[in-house]
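Incident log, support desk, overnight shift.

02:14 A customer reports that sequence design results differ from what the structure should imply. Their input is reproduced verbatim below. On-call engineer (initials T.W.) acknowledged and began investigating.
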Protein backbone atom coordinates (compact mmCIF):
# COMPACT_ATOMS: atom_id res chain seq x y z
CA UNK A 1 0.00 0.00 0.00
CA UNK A 2 2.77 2.42 0.83
CA UNK A 3 4.09 2.24 -2.72
CA UNK A 4 0.78 3.08 -4.40
CA UNK A 5 0.55 6.64 -5.80
CA UNK A 6 -2.25 8.80 -4.37
CA UNK A 7 -2.70 6.58 -1.29
CA UNK A 8 0.40 7.12 0.78
CA UNK A 9 1.36 10.16 2.83
CA UNK A 10 -0.05 13.52 1.86
CA UNK A 11 -1.96 12.06 -1.13
CA UNK A 12 -4.37 10.09 1.06
CA UNK A 13 -4.54 12.80 3.71
CA UNK A 14 -5.20 15.43 1.06
CA UNK A 15 -8.02 13.40 -0.47
CA UNK A 16 -9.60 12.83 2.93
CA UNK A 17 -9.27 16.51 3.83
CA UNK A 18 -10.90 17.62 0.58
CA UNK A 19 -13.71 15.10 1.03
CA UNK A 20 -14.35 16.15 4.63
CA UNK A 21 -14.29 19.82 3.70
CA UNK A 22 -16.69 19.30 0.78
CA UNK A 23 -19.09 17.27 2.93
CA UNK A 24 -18.87 19.86 5.70
CA UNK A 25 -19.79 22.61 3.22
CA UNK A 26 -22.88 20.66 2.16
CA UNK A 27 -24.25 20.40 5.71
CA UNK A 28 -23.06 23.78 7.07
CA UNK A 29 -25.41 26.69 7.69
CA UNK A 30 -24.88 29.14 4.79
CA UNK A 31 -23.36 32.58 5.33
CA UNK A 32 -25.14 35.49 3.63
CA UNK A 33 -22.88 37.63 1.41
CA UNK A 34 -23.46 40.67 -0.80
CA UNK A 35 -22.18 40.15 -4.37
CA UNK A 36 -20.95 43.03 -6.53
CA UNK A 37 -19.02 43.30 -9.80
CA UNK A 38 -15.79 42.75 -7.83
CA UNK A 39 -16.91 39.16 -7.15
CA UNK A 40 -15.51 37.29 -4.16
CA UNK A 41 -12.43 35.28 -3.20
CA UNK A 42 -13.39 31.56 -3.02
CA UNK A 43 -10.23 30.74 -1.06
CA UNK A 44 -11.43 32.97 1.78
CA UNK A 45 -14.56 30.81 2.16
CA UNK A 46 -13.11 27.30 1.58
CA UNK A 47 -15.20 24.53 3.09
CA UNK A 48 -18.16 26.84 3.81
CA UNK A 49 -21.69 27.26 2.47
CA UNK A 50 -22.71 30.61 0.95
CA UNK A 51 -26.00 32.32 0.19
CA UNK A 52 -25.28 35.21 -2.23
CA UNK A 53 -27.41 38.25 -3.03
CA UNK A 54 -26.56 39.99 -6.32
CA UNK A 55 -26.46 43.77 -6.52
CA UNK A 56 -28.92 45.35 -8.95
CA UNK A 57 -25.91 46.84 -10.75
CA UNK A 58 -25.28 43.29 -12.05
CA UNK A 59 -28.86 42.67 -13.24
CA UNK A 60 -31.36 43.32 -16.01
CA UNK A 61 -35.04 42.41 -15.70
CA UNK A 62 -38.00 41.45 -17.85
CA UNK A 63 -41.70 41.24 -16.91
CA UNK A 64 -43.66 39.20 -19.47
CA UNK A 65 -46.92 40.44 -20.93
CA UNK A 66 -49.94 38.44 -19.71
CA UNK A 67 -51.29 35.81 -22.04
CA UNK A 68 -48.02 34.84 -23.78
CA UNK A 69 -47.84 31.09 -24.61
CA UNK A 70 -44.94 30.34 -22.24
CA UNK A 71 -45.86 26.84 -21.11
CA UNK A 72 -42.72 25.93 -19.18
CA UNK A 73 -39.37 27.21 -17.94
CA UNK A 74 -37.63 26.45 -21.27
CA UNK A 75 -40.12 28.56 -23.20
CA UNK A 76 -39.89 31.39 -20.65
CA UNK A 77 -36.08 31.50 -20.83
CA UNK A 78 -36.04 31.21 -24.64
CA UNK A 79 -38.39 34.18 -24.89
CA UNK A 80 -36.34 36.22 -22.41
CA UNK A 81 -33.03 35.39 -24.12
CA UNK A 82 -34.47 36.50 -27.45
CA UNK A 83 -35.57 39.87 -26.06
CA UNK A 84 -32.35 40.45 -24.10
CA UNK A 85 -30.37 39.64 -27.26
CA UNK A 86 -32.47 42.11 -29.24
CA UNK A 87 -31.83 44.99 -26.81
CA UNK A 88 -28.32 44.20 -25.56
CA UNK A 89 -26.67 42.32 -28.43
CA UNK A 90 -24.91 38.96 -28.75
CA UNK A 91 -23.32 39.19 -25.29
CA UNK A 92 -26.77 38.66 -23.75
CA UNK A 93 -26.82 35.10 -25.09
CA UNK A 94 -24.25 34.15 -22.43
CA UNK A 95 -26.03 35.77 -19.47
CA UNK A 96 -27.26 33.51 -16.69
CA UNK A 97 -31.07 33.66 -16.33
CA UNK A 98 -33.37 33.12 -13.36
CA UNK A 99 -37.08 32.92 -14.12
CA UNK A 100 -40.14 33.10 -11.88
CA UNK A 101 -43.86 32.53 -12.33
CA UNK A 102 -46.50 33.49 -9.72
CA UNK A 103 -50.30 33.68 -10.05
CA UNK A 104 -50.34 34.38 -13.79
CA UNK A 105 -47.39 36.81 -13.69
CA UNK A 106 -43.98 35.78 -15.02
CA UNK A 107 -40.57 37.36 -15.40
CA UNK A 108 -36.87 36.77 -15.81
CA UNK A 109 -33.80 38.36 -14.21
CA UNK A 110 -30.48 38.26 -16.09
CA UNK A 111 -27.03 38.31 -14.48
CA UNK A 112 -24.98 40.41 -16.91
CA UNK A 113 -22.25 41.87 -14.71
CA UNK A 114 -20.60 38.60 -13.57
CA UNK A 115 -19.49 35.30 -15.14
CA UNK A 116 -21.54 32.76 -13.17
CA UNK A 117 -19.74 29.75 -14.66
CA UNK A 118 -16.32 31.09 -13.63
CA UNK A 119 -17.68 31.86 -10.16
CA UNK A 120 -19.00 28.29 -9.79
CA UNK A 121 -15.67 26.80 -10.90
CA UNK A 122 -13.77 28.87 -8.35
CA UNK A 123 -16.15 27.88 -5.56
CA UNK A 124 -16.04 24.18 -6.52
CA UNK A 125 -12.24 24.23 -6.53
CA UNK A 126 -12.27 25.33 -2.87
CA UNK A 127 -15.17 23.05 -1.79
CA UNK A 128 -17.56 25.98 -1.29
CA UNK A 129 -21.26 25.03 -1.41
CA UNK A 130 -23.33 27.66 -3.25
CA UNK A 131 -26.81 27.42 -1.71
CA UNK A 132 -28.35 30.32 -3.59
CA UNK A 133 -27.73 33.42 -5.71
CA UNK A 134 -30.78 35.68 -5.51
CA UNK A 135 -31.38 39.07 -7.17
CA UNK A 136 -31.42 41.91 -4.63
CA UNK A 137 -35.00 42.95 -5.45
CA UNK A 138 -36.37 39.45 -4.74
CA UNK A 139 -34.40 39.03 -1.51
CA UNK A 140 -35.50 42.43 -0.16
CA UNK A 141 -39.11 41.78 -1.19
CA UNK A 142 -39.22 38.47 0.70
CA UNK A 143 -37.86 40.05 3.90
CA UNK A 144 -40.02 43.19 3.73
CA UNK A 145 -43.19 41.21 2.98
CA UNK A 146 -42.76 39.21 6.19
CA UNK A 147 -42.19 42.36 8.23
CA UNK A 148 -44.90 44.48 6.54
CA UNK A 149 -47.87 42.17 5.80
CA UNK A 150 -50.40 45.03 5.69
CA UNK A 151 -48.35 46.81 3.04
CA UNK A 152 -48.23 43.66 0.92
CA UNK A 153 -52.03 43.25 1.06
CA UNK A 154 -52.66 46.82 -0.17
CA UNK A 155 -54.39 47.15 -3.58
CA UNK A 156 -51.35 49.06 -4.88
CA UNK A 157 -47.91 48.81 -3.27
CA UNK A 158 -44.34 49.41 -4.36
CA UNK A 159 -40.82 48.78 -3.10
CA UNK A 160 -38.15 51.39 -3.88
CA UNK A 161 -34.69 49.84 -3.47
CA UNK A 162 -31.77 52.22 -3.98
CA UNK A 163 -28.06 51.41 -4.41
CA UNK A 164 -26.25 54.71 -4.66
CA UNK A 165 -27.19 56.16 -8.03
CA UNK A 166 -29.45 53.25 -9.09
CA UNK A 167 -33.14 53.03 -8.12
CA UNK A 168 -35.04 49.75 -8.56
CA UNK A 169 -38.82 50.25 -8.68
CA UNK A 170 -40.96 47.20 -7.93
CA UNK A 171 -44.76 47.63 -8.16
CA UNK A 172 -47.39 45.15 -6.92
CA UNK A 173 -51.14 44.81 -7.23
CA UNK A 174 -52.76 42.88 -4.39
CA UNK A 175 -49.40 41.27 -3.65
CA UNK A 176 -48.60 40.25 -7.27
CA UNK A 177 -45.62 41.80 -9.08
CA UNK A 178 -46.56 43.59 -12.30
CA UNK A 179 -43.71 46.07 -12.80
CA UNK A 180 -39.93 45.91 -12.23
CA UNK A 181 -37.53 48.47 -13.68
CA UNK A 182 -34.34 50.44 -13.07
CA UNK A 183 -33.97 54.21 -13.07
CA UNK A 184 -30.66 56.07 -12.89
CA UNK A 185 -30.56 58.96 -10.43
CA UNK A 186 -29.00 62.26 -11.41
CA UNK A 187 -26.59 61.80 -8.46
CA UNK A 188 -26.28 59.48 -5.45
CA UNK A 189 -28.09 61.95 -3.17
CA UNK A 190 -31.37 61.99 -1.27
CA UNK A 191 -32.36 65.08 -3.25
CA UNK A 192 -32.03 63.21 -6.57
CA UNK A 193 -33.90 60.23 -5.08
CA UNK A 194 -36.67 62.52 -3.78
CA UNK A 195 -37.11 64.03 -7.25
CA UNK A 196 -37.23 60.61 -8.94
CA UNK A 197 -39.81 59.23 -6.48
CA UNK A 198 -41.91 62.38 -6.70
CA UNK A 199 -41.98 62.02 -10.48
CA UNK A 200 -42.98 58.34 -10.29
CA UNK A 201 -45.63 59.04 -7.62
CA UNK A 202 -46.99 61.87 -9.74
CA UNK A 203 -48.06 59.47 -12.45
CA UNK A 204 -51.77 58.64 -12.35
CA UNK A 205 -51.18 54.90 -12.08
CA UNK A 206 -49.03 55.37 -8.96
CA UNK A 207 -50.94 58.10 -7.16
CA UNK A 208 -52.46 55.79 -4.53
CA UNK A 209 -49.46 53.46 -4.27
CA UNK A 210 -48.04 52.78 -0.80
CA UNK A 211 -44.24 52.88 -1.21
CA UNK A 212 -41.60 51.39 1.12
CA UNK A 213 -38.09 52.79 0.71
CA UNK A 214 -34.86 51.03 1.61
CA UNK A 215 -31.25 51.12 0.41
CA UNK A 216 -27.76 52.48 0.93
CA UNK A 217 -25.02 54.59 -0.64
CA UNK A 218 -26.60 58.09 -0.46
CA UNK A 219 -25.20 61.26 1.07
CA UNK A 220 -27.47 61.54 4.13
CA UNK A 221 -29.52 59.15 6.21
CA UNK A 222 -33.02 60.66 5.96
CA UNK A 223 -34.94 61.70 2.84
CA UNK A 224 -37.40 64.61 3.05
CA UNK A 225 -40.98 63.52 3.62
CA UNK A 226 -42.94 62.52 0.54
CA UNK A 227 -46.67 61.57 0.70
CA UNK A 228 -47.21 57.84 0.38
CA UNK A 229 -43.51 56.98 0.88
CA UNK A 230 -42.21 55.38 4.09
CA UNK A 231 -38.47 55.00 4.69
CA UNK A 232 -37.50 51.75 6.50
CA UNK A 233 -33.83 52.41 7.33
CA UNK A 234 -31.10 55.07 6.99
CA UNK A 235 -29.82 55.52 3.44
CA UNK A 236 -26.22 56.62 4.09
CA UNK A 237 -24.68 53.22 4.89
CA UNK A 238 -21.65 52.21 2.79
CA UNK A 239 -23.05 48.70 2.20
CA UNK A 240 -26.35 46.88 2.78
CA UNK A 241 -27.01 45.03 6.03
CA UNK A 242 -27.31 41.22 5.83
CA UNK A 243 -30.54 41.40 7.87
CA UNK A 244 -32.23 43.08 4.89
CA UNK A 245 -31.89 39.86 2.89
CA UNK A 246 -32.54 37.20 5.54
CA UNK A 247 -35.15 34.76 4.18
CA UNK A 248 -38.24 34.67 6.42
CA UNK A 249 -38.93 31.51 8.41
CA UNK A 250 -42.15 31.00 6.42
CA UNK A 251 -41.73 32.61 2.95
CA UNK A 252 -44.90 33.62 1.14
CA UNK A 253 -45.61 31.30 -1.75
CA UNK A 254 -47.16 34.10 -3.86
CA UNK A 255 -43.91 36.07 -4.14
CA UNK A 256 -41.25 35.50 -6.82
CA UNK A 257 -38.14 33.57 -5.74
CA UNK A 258 -35.72 33.60 -8.72
CA UNK A 259 -32.37 31.97 -7.99
CA UNK A 260 -29.42 31.84 -10.41
CA UNK A 261 -27.86 28.96 -8.44
CA UNK A 262 -30.99 26.80 -8.42
CA UNK A 263 -31.17 23.57 -10.44
CA UNK A 264 -33.56 23.30 -13.36
CA UNK A 265 -35.78 21.19 -11.09
CA UNK A 266 -36.39 21.66 -7.35
CA UNK A 267 -34.29 19.74 -4.86
CA UNK A 268 -35.79 16.38 -4.02
CA UNK A 269 -36.09 14.75 -0.64
CA UNK A 270 -33.93 11.98 -2.15
CA UNK A 271 -30.83 14.19 -2.14
CA UNK A 272 -29.71 13.41 1.40
CA UNK A 273 -30.12 9.62 1.05
CA UNK A 274 -28.00 9.71 -2.10
CA UNK A 275 -25.39 11.91 -0.43
CA UNK A 276 -25.32 9.51 2.52
CA UNK A 277 -24.88 6.60 0.14
CA UNK A 278 -21.88 8.32 -1.46
CA UNK A 279 -20.43 9.07 1.97
CA UNK A 280 -20.76 5.40 2.94
CA UNK A 281 -18.96 4.36 -0.23
CA UNK A 282 -16.09 6.74 0.54
CA UNK A 283 -15.98 5.64 4.17
CA UNK A 284 -15.73 2.01 3.04
CA UNK A 285 -12.91 2.92 0.68
CA UNK A 286 -11.01 4.73 3.41
CA UNK A 287 -11.52 1.84 5.84
CA UNK A 288 -10.23 -0.58 3.20
CA UNK A 289 -7.18 1.60 2.63
CA UNK A 290 -6.45 1.80 6.35
CA UNK A 291 -7.02 -1.93 6.87
CA UNK A 292 -4.71 -2.78 3.96
CA UNK A 293 -2.06 -0.47 5.39
CA UNK A 294 -2.37 -2.15 8.80
CA UNK A 295 -2.12 -5.62 7.25
CA UNK A 296 0.97 -4.62 5.30
CA UNK A 297 2.61 -3.25 8.44
CA UNK A 298 1.86 -6.46 10.34
CA UNK A 299 3.22 -8.55 7.47
CA UNK A 300 6.42 -6.50 7.40
CA UNK A 301 6.87 -7.05 11.13
CA UNK A 302 6.40 -10.81 10.70
CA UNK A 303 8.93 -10.87 7.85
CA UNK A 304 11.46 -9.00 9.99
CA UNK A 305 10.92 -11.40 12.92
CA UNK A 306 11.22 -14.41 10.62
CA UNK A 307 14.43 -13.03 9.09
CA UNK A 308 15.95 -12.58 12.54
CA UNK A 309 14.96 -16.12 13.49
CA UNK A 310 16.43 -17.58 10.31
CA UNK A 311 19.72 -15.85 10.93
CA UNK A 312 19.99 -17.70 14.26
CA UNK A 313 19.17 -21.11 12.74
CA UNK A 314 21.07 -23.29 10.26
CA UNK A 315 20.02 -22.90 6.64
CA UNK A 316 16.96 -25.01 5.81
CA UNK A 317 17.13 -27.58 3.07
CA UNK A 318 16.69 -26.03 -0.34
CA UNK A 319 13.22 -26.38 -1.87
CA UNK A 320 12.85 -28.19 -5.13
CA UNK A 321 12.22 -25.98 -8.23
CA UNK A 322 8.51 -26.89 -8.45
CA UNK A 323 7.88 -25.76 -4.87
CA UNK A 324 9.77 -22.54 -5.51
CA UNK A 325 7.67 -21.79 -8.60
CA UNK A 326 4.47 -22.46 -6.64
CA UNK A 327 5.53 -20.10 -3.85
CA UNK A 328 6.45 -17.42 -6.39
CA UNK A 329 3.04 -17.72 -8.09
CA UNK A 330 1.24 -17.48 -4.75
CA UNK A 331 3.22 -14.37 -3.82
CA UNK A 332 2.49 -12.83 -7.24
CA UNK A 333 -1.25 -13.41 -6.80
CA UNK A 334 -1.13 -11.82 -3.33
CA UNK A 335 0.78 -8.79 -4.63
CA UNK A 336 -1.70 -8.33 -7.51
CA UNK A 337 -4.67 -8.47 -5.14
CA UNK A 338 -3.13 -5.85 -2.87
CA UNK A 339 -2.35 -3.61 -5.83
CA UNK A 340 -5.90 -4.03 -7.17
CA UNK A 341 -7.42 -3.09 -3.80
CA UNK A 342 -5.19 -0.01 -3.52
CA UNK A 343 -5.99 1.07 -7.08
CA UNK A 344 -9.73 0.65 -6.45
CA UNK A 345 -9.50 2.83 -3.33
CA UNK A 346 -7.61 5.52 -5.23
CA UNK A 347 -10.18 5.49 -8.07
CA UNK A 348 -13.05 5.81 -5.57
CA UNK A 349 -11.38 8.79 -3.88
CA UNK A 350 -10.91 10.52 -7.24
CA UNK A 351 -14.53 9.97 -8.35
CA UNK A 352 -16.51 13.26 -8.66
CA UNK A 353 -19.30 12.19 -6.30
CA UNK A 354 -21.04 15.59 -6.31
CA UNK A 355 -21.91 15.65 -10.05
CA UNK A 356 -22.59 11.88 -10.08
CA UNK A 357 -25.12 11.99 -7.23
CA UNK A 358 -26.63 15.22 -8.60
CA UNK A 359 -27.25 13.53 -11.98
CA UNK A 360 -28.95 10.55 -10.33
CA UNK A 361 -31.08 12.82 -8.16
CA UNK A 362 -32.15 15.15 -10.99
CA UNK A 363 -32.88 12.34 -13.45
CA UNK A 364 -35.15 10.61 -10.94
CA UNK A 365 -37.29 13.66 -10.19
CA UNK A 366 -40.92 13.64 -11.21
CA UNK A 367 -43.52 16.36 -11.68
CA UNK A 368 -44.46 16.91 -8.89
CA UNK A 369 -41.19 15.81 -7.18
CA UNK A 370 -42.94 13.42 -4.77
CA UNK A 371 -43.98 11.28 -7.75
CA UNK A 372 -40.38 10.68 -8.81
CA UNK A 373 -38.17 7.66 -8.37
CA UNK A 374 -37.23 6.39 -4.90
CA UNK A 375 -33.66 5.11 -4.75
CA UNK A 376 -32.96 1.93 -2.81
CA UNK A 377 -29.29 1.33 -3.53
CA UNK A 378 -26.17 2.41 -5.41
CA UNK A 379 -23.10 0.31 -6.24
CA UNK A 380 -20.11 1.71 -8.15
CA UNK A 381 -17.00 -0.20 -9.26
CA UNK A 382 -14.43 2.51 -9.91
CA UNK A 383 -11.86 0.40 -11.78
CA UNK A 384 -14.42 -0.86 -14.32
CA UNK A 385 -16.32 2.44 -14.17
CA UNK A 386 -19.59 0.54 -13.83
CA UNK A 387 -22.58 1.86 -11.86
CA UNK A 388 -25.62 -0.09 -10.71
CA UNK A 389 -28.73 1.62 -9.31
CA UNK A 390 -31.62 -0.05 -7.53
CA UNK A 391 -34.80 2.03 -7.68
CA UNK A 392 -38.57 2.09 -7.21
CA UNK A 393 -40.80 3.81 -9.80
CA UNK A 394 -44.53 4.35 -9.97
CA UNK A 395 -44.65 2.95 -13.50
CA UNK A 396 -42.39 1.76 -16.28
CA UNK A 397 -42.55 5.12 -18.09
CA UNK A 398 -40.65 6.85 -15.26
CA UNK A 399 -37.85 4.29 -15.46
CA UNK A 400 -37.63 4.64 -19.25
CA UNK A 401 -37.54 8.44 -18.87
CA UNK A 402 -34.69 8.02 -16.39
CA UNK A 403 -32.73 5.98 -18.96
CA UNK A 404 -33.40 8.65 -21.60
CA UNK A 405 -32.14 11.53 -19.42
CA UNK A 406 -28.99 9.74 -18.26
CA UNK A 407 -28.17 8.51 -21.76
CA UNK A 408 -28.22 12.11 -23.01
CA UNK A 409 -25.88 13.34 -20.26
CA UNK A 410 -22.12 13.69 -20.85
CA UNK A 411 -20.14 10.96 -19.13
CA UNK A 412 -22.94 8.32 -19.24
CA UNK A 413 -22.91 5.40 -21.73
CA UNK A 414 -24.59 2.00 -22.09
CA UNK A 415 -27.47 3.00 -19.78
CA UNK A 416 -29.83 0.00 -19.66
CA UNK A 417 -32.54 -1.48 -17.44
CA UNK A 418 -31.43 -4.96 -16.38
CA UNK A 419 -34.47 -5.86 -14.25
CA UNK A 420 -38.05 -4.60 -14.00
CA UNK A 421 -40.64 -6.27 -11.77
CA UNK A 422 -43.45 -5.55 -9.34
CA UNK A 423 -42.01 -4.49 -5.98
CA UNK A 424 -42.37 -6.76 -2.98
CA UNK A 425 -41.52 -6.68 0.72
CA UNK A 426 -44.06 -3.96 1.50
CA UNK A 427 -42.93 -1.65 -1.34
CA UNK A 428 -45.41 -0.10 -3.78
CA UNK A 429 -44.58 0.36 -7.46
CA UNK A 430 -42.20 -1.17 -10.00
CA UNK A 431 -38.70 -2.13 -8.83
CA UNK A 432 -35.87 -1.96 -11.34
CA UNK A 433 -32.11 -2.26 -11.71
CA UNK A 434 -30.22 0.16 -13.94
CA UNK A 435 -26.68 -0.37 -15.18
CA UNK A 436 -24.40 2.18 -16.83
CA UNK A 437 -20.82 2.85 -17.84
CA UNK A 438 -19.32 6.14 -16.62
CA UNK A 439 -16.62 8.52 -17.78
CA UNK A 440 -16.22 10.50 -14.53
CA UNK A 441 -14.00 13.15 -16.08
CA UNK A 442 -16.92 14.28 -18.30
CA UNK A 443 -19.53 14.61 -15.53
CA UNK A 444 -20.91 18.09 -14.86
CA UNK A 445 -23.01 19.45 -11.98
CA UNK A 446 -26.15 20.13 -14.02
CA UNK A 447 -27.94 17.34 -15.88
CA UNK A 448 -28.94 18.40 -19.44
CA UNK A 449 -32.66 18.77 -19.80
CA UNK A 450 -34.65 16.65 -22.26
CA UNK A 451 -36.91 18.97 -24.23
CA UNK A 452 -40.56 17.99 -24.17
CA UNK A 453 -42.05 21.06 -25.81
CA UNK A 454 -41.01 23.38 -28.58
CA UNK A 455 -39.62 26.64 -27.14
CA UNK A 456 -41.27 29.90 -28.04
CA UNK A 457 -39.16 31.95 -30.42
CA UNK A 458 -41.48 34.91 -31.06
CA UNK A 459 -42.99 37.25 -28.43
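02:41 Re-run completed on a clean worker. Output:
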Amino acid sequence: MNSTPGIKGHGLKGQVLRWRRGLGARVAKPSLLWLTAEGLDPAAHAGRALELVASEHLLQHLICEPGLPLADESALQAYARQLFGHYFGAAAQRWALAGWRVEGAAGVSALHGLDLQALRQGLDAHQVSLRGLRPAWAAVLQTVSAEQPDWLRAPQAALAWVEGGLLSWLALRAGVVHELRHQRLAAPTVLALHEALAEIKGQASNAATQVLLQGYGLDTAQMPALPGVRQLAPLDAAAPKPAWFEPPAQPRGALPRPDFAADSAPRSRLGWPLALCGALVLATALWSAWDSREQLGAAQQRVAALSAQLQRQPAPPRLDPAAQRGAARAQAVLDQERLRAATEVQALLQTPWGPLLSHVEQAGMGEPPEQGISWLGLDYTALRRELRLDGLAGDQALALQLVERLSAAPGWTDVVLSRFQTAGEGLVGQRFDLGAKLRPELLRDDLPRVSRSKPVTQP
